[in-house]
Automatic annotation (TrEMBL):
SUPFAM superfamilies: C-terminal effector domain of the bipartite response regulators (SSF46894), CheY-like (SSF52172). The modification 4-aspartylphosphate is found at residue 54. Keywords: DNA-binding, Phosphoprotein, Transcription, Transcription regulation. It comes from Streptomyces viridochromogenes (strain DSM 40736 / JCM 4977 / BCRC 1201 / Tue 494). Gene3D superfamilies: 3.40.50.2300. Pfam families: GerE (PF00196), Response_reg (PF00072). PANTHER family: TRANSCRIPTIONAL REGULATORY PROTEIN NARL-RELATED, TWO-COMPONENT RESPONSE REGULATOR. GO terms for biological process: phosphorelay signal transduction system; regulation of DNA-templated transcription. The keyword Protein transport does not apply. This is Two-component system regulatory protein. GO terms for molecular function: DNA binding. The lineage of its organism: Bacteria, Bacillati, Actinomycetota, Actinomycetes, Kitasatosporales. InterPro entries: CheY-like_superfamily, NreC/VraR/RcsB-like_REC, Sig_transdc_resp-reg_C-effctor, Sig_transdc_resp-reg_receiver, Tscrpt_reg_LuxR_C, WalR-like. Residues 147-212 form the HTH luxR-type domain.
Length: 219
């Protein structure tokens, strides 16, 4: 059972999402919150698998709530998905750095919402090709800093797997490109996340661009 927490200051959004999620046999909405502070407290209390958190809220915004969740080792199993009213909210990159697994636009169709919750629960990133393209554009206009020393700890296969993940490929697709099993692809990604201290797959992709491991031309 996938346990979901809804955090949004708009009651209509919360009730709409709950109505959709509650129809699924494998999903349970365990609680709702109207601001980041209340949401953070409920995350610690309920330990959901997925927390759908609005970026902009009173008291504590979603980015700060996400940052605190990511910083707490006891909440490592909580996957945060940010909610935004826009396809490319100005705070999306900051949210990914804070530890969000990805983001959803609030007018998402029901099928995509359900898919996103299940993907996030598996620990995968919600980075659509359009978002990957915008990540690339960002690093074309803002060159990355010097390559981190931590990158030297990655094996050549781990680097290859991360580069493919940065293009938005799933573990199965990475496995196909590298001619390895999906489990081995997942192992490469997980080891790279550990070595680069990435909270999740989405943050790994951001770090890959920021560190220079992946360049816009190579993606």
């Amino acid at each position: 059972m996938i346990r979901v927490l809804l955090v949004d200051d708009q009651p209509l959004i919360r009730s709409g999402f709950r109505a959709l999620l509650d129809l699924e046999d494998d999903v349970e909405v365990v609680a709702e919150a109207a601001d980041g502070e209340e949401g953070l407290a409920l995350v610690r209390e309920q330990r959901p698998n997925v927390a759908l958190i609005d970026i902009r809220m009173p008291v504590m915004d979603g980015i700060e709530a996400t940052r605190r969740i990511a910083a707490d080792p006891s909440l490592a199993g909580v996957h945060v998905v940010m909610l935004t009213n826009y396809g490319m909210d100005e705070y999306v990159f900051e949210a990914l750095r804070a530890g969000a697994a990805g983001f959803l636009v609030k007018d998402i169709v029901p099928e995509d919402l359900l898919h996103a919750v299940r993907v996030a629960a598996r620990g995968e990133a919600l980075l659509a090709p359009s978002i990957t393209r915008k990540l690339i554009h960002r690093y074309v206009t803002q060159p990355p800093p010097t390559t981190s020393a931590a990158l030297e700890e990655l094996t050549s296969r781990e680097r290859e797997a991360v580069a493919l993940a940065a293009r938005g490929l799933s573990n199965d697709q990475i496995a196909g490109h590298m001619v390895i099993s999906p489990m081995t692809a997942k192992t490469h990604i997980n080891r790279a996340m550990t070595k680069l201290h990435a909270h999740d797959r989405a943050q790994l992709v951001v770090l890959a661009y920021e560190s220079g491991l992946v360049t816009p031309r190579s993606s």
